[in-house]
Amino acid sequence: MKHDEPGPDPVDTRLGVRLAALRAERGWSLGELAERSGVSKSTLSRAERAEISPTASLLNRLCGVYGRTMSQLLSEVEAEPALLIRGADQTVWEDRASGFVRRSVSPPHAGLRGELVEGRLAAGADIAYDRPPVPGLEQHIWVLEGALDVTAQDAEHHLGTGDCLRLRVWGPTRFRCAGPDPVRYVLAVVLP
């Protein structure tokens, strides 16, 4: 394959293998997973075969079914976790459909309950999660540049540069960048 020809993203390939393994560990068919997650069998199959790059919303639904945070799932497709994570070694994942870029700055590690994620949303990006991957998940959202609208517990919060929103997530959440500029923020996640 030539370098300029698109091929499956290596992270998507490893992610697909891990998703298939999680389903197999539970002895579920694609149909059973589709019922539990609300995602079509076709989409699940294509994600497991890395024919599509899964969206943040899809991964969130699967994390909920498997009882993991998104960072935990993504860390499972990487090498052994290290104490020092160099910037060049941090996993970056992109949901091209929504304009969301996620950098795992401090990925989950055995014995630690917290992790740090850098999020970037393009102007106009709007991501809705129908449920938290882990009920009661603690989140601290600190805006580094731009503005971010976060909806949680039926309340909308407008965060500007330097603002921090702290909450426990029990239900649906929504992250929106109204623009005109993109937003960059830090998400600190702490397991209950």
UniProtKB/TrEMBL annotation:
Keywords recorded for this protein, A-Z: DNA-binding
SUPFAM superfamilies (alphabetical): lambda repressor-like DNA-binding domains (SSF47413), RmlC-like cupins (SSF51182)
Highest taxon of the lineage: Bacteria
Domain HTH cro/C1-type residues, every copy: 19-73
Keyword Lipoprotein on entry: no
Gene3D superfamilies: Jelly Rolls, lambda repressor-like DNA-binding domains
Classification via Pfam families: HTH_31 (PF13560)
Residues forming coiled coils: none
Protein name: XRE family transcriptional regulator
Species the sequence originates in: Streptomyces doebereineriae
Lineage: Bacteria, Bacillati, Actinomycetota, Actinomycetes, Kitasatosporales
